[in-house]
Amino acid sequence: MITRLVLVFFSLSLALTSAYAERLKVHPSEQAAMDALIQGAGIDESLVSSGGSERQIHEFDEYFLTGTRYFYDDVSSGQPALYVSTNPDGHVVRLEYDYVKYPDFEQILKFKKLRMLIIRFSSLEKIPDISSLNELMYLRVAVNDKLIDFNGINNLSNLKFFRGSGNSQSEVKIVGGVKNLPSLEEFYCETCVIPDISFLESAKNLKILKIGMLGSTLDPLKDAKKMEEIKIRSDNLKDASAINNMKNLNSLMLWDTNIESLDIGPNLTNLKELRLGNSPLKSIPQISHLRALESLSIAGTNIRNIDKIHDLPELTRLVLTRNNTKRIVNLKNLPKLKELYLADQPLEYYETGVLPSLKELDLSKTNIKKLTGFENFPNLTNLKLYDTKVKSVRGIEKSEHLEYVQTDHTLPDSAENDAVFQEMKENRQRRFRERFGKYLD
């Protein structure tokens, strides 16, 4: 635990007249490494600033109440920048690189108390062996266009958080080793293409996983029982049954997969968000037991008929778009549903129960010819009807709070449509008078 003290440093004006070691004073055992680090990074020493600050790192309980030094040119211009924090004893505990072409790991490895390391916008191709950084908790390597080899992260016993997104989108080399990362809780590598996730088999404390992968199964995650959030892209993924062991899972996104069917078992009652998309999925999974579900998105699938979405008391957002769906029925007992998107598919017919909370409905780019059931949407305010086969909007006036109807040239001008829109206008004026009339008299 880092003692909560604030170090007192020389002012900038005094520091600029002092020796370099005084201006950037770290623990004596690390001073030579720091001097070499600054020099190697090409930092302009005349732009040094220093001061005390409090910084919370992610969700840690520990705070860095430290002397903080900034070494920078203009980061927005792509010039080298370096952020350094020390603990009260002077040991470097945080190191952040921006636009340093080749970070000097020989010096970095001399900071034995380092807890947070961030490297961005470098020409780094691989992370070297950093296993000697025993106290490292947070590692972020992002926006490094050439980085494809992460094998150096092995054997970091205290590493909790890894961020590796925004690097090269080539195949990433990660093999073995995570069995030696016993504290790992979050692993982000969304823009990666990881050939094999078997290296995660022993990550028993993993809670959040966001990756791109090549594997066909999630079996290596079957013992990740603390998992709370999964976001995976994989053209080869066919088997996601391992999720059914994850009782704490509250968010699941499986995108760009090869999944044809998905079983969501009884253990997943804590699931609040489910997103399935861009896959050959042929039917909606059984979800009626997901009583906590708040957001459901199924898009870009081969599903032809949808009739299993009902009795979800917490659902507020439902996206059913870009599927092969012609019929959607039995949308009922969804008391909190506010947003319903049915666009961009060959939909011909929909049927719902009363949706008392619905505010927005999108039927654009469908084959709907007749608008029905608007008496079931008493609080609807926004309707989208771009590029449909609808010729008459008669019936939408039954949604008395409807204010915005967005259409295009596919809706013909007609006396009937004009009459409906006039009725809507009068409804708005009436509601306005009912609400504010007493203030206008």
Automatic annotation (TrEMBL):
Keyword entries, A-Z: Leucine-rich repeat, Repeat, Signal
Keyword check for Signal: yes
Signal peptide span: 1-21
InterPro entries for this protein: Leu-rich_rpt (IPR001611), Leu-rich_rpt_4 (IPR025875), LRR_dom_sf (IPR032675), SDS22/Internalin_LRR (IPR050836)
SUPFAM superfamilies: L domain-like
A matching Pfam family: LRR_4
PANTHER family: LEUCINE-RICH REPEAT AND IQ DOMAIN-CONTAINING PROTEIN 1-RELATED, LEUCINE-RICH REPEAT-CONTAINING PROTEIN 9
Name of the protein in its database record: Internalin A
Organism, scientific name: Bermanella marisrubri
Lineage: Bacteria, Pseudomonadati, Pseudomonadota, Gammaproteobacteria, Oceanospirillales
